[in-house]
Amino acid sequence: MNENKENKNKRKVILFPxxxxxxxxxxxKLAETLHYNEANEMFEQALLLGEGDEISLxxxxxxxxxxxxxxxxxQICEELLAIGPSMYFEVMELYLxxxxxxxxxxxxxKIIESLFxxxxxxxxxxxxxxxxxNLNAHIAENQGSQLQSSPVNDDDGDFEIIASELLxxxxxxxxxxxxxxxxxxxxxxxxxxxxxIETEDVxxxxxxxxxxxxVEQEVNLDLNIAxxxxxxxxxxxxxxxxxxxxxxEEIATIISEKLVQEPSTLEFAQxxxxxHAIVLYPFEWAIFRSEDIALSYIEFVKSMFGEIVEINSxxxxxxxxxxxxxxxxE
Length: 330
Known about the structure:
InterPro entries: TPR-like_helical_dom_sf. By secondary structure, the chain is mainly alpha-helical. The protein contains 16 helices and 2 strands.
């Protein structure tokens, strides 16, 4: 009896050939179609059964980043960096971004210093990383002084320090800073935020994110906003959020009705539309009819899935332009 039990405990799980590869491939497909939570679960299953290759681990790290699981994303990046991936610098950039999200600014500063010492930074990236190192050093120093002078006051954040320098940074660096603000009281810095929003050459996505912060905190002031050859005066205290704007709701209803039998296409179209609404905010697709925009989103997504469809080239060109901007491509 005991012998049988012992033998049973020693039995190994026998995997069918290709099981691990299949799990990794399915996880990658889920991540590529924006199903990040499902992808992450499948990546974890695959890693319990075998080791991931460089591509799989890279996609897993980005997928974890998308759902804000920064601690696990950092672990995966560290595993990748340990094996010396061919895309070392790209992985390192993601790793540094994650460390900033975790507010590990001193660590970021030290890593960048070591990259400079080892001459691993490409020449065309040197200026950007010099700015990034200085920014992290500045924030880390400010964190230390705040802890010494007022350890109980963590409401104001770092925006006051860097507002005047914000527009000198890359869009990705600006985004990192703005990501620190939603949980903080931004009212002491309304003048600085207003100045950035009204700056002529500010990126439309950054402009919108700052406006959304003012709307969420119901800040009462007048803003003059210009983007996409349109101008408008708005008051954040009276402005609905992007997904509550009138035309957004019209288009979303039409898309939902037309794709009720196609859930995957519907989900992807809704994702694109919400992302584009932020870029356009506080404007909408008003230069086009809601029905035409809805149909164009459906056509746009189906064409991305490889289907041959008739498209309204003018509207789809507009959507592609917004898509490129929403990806923060510089």
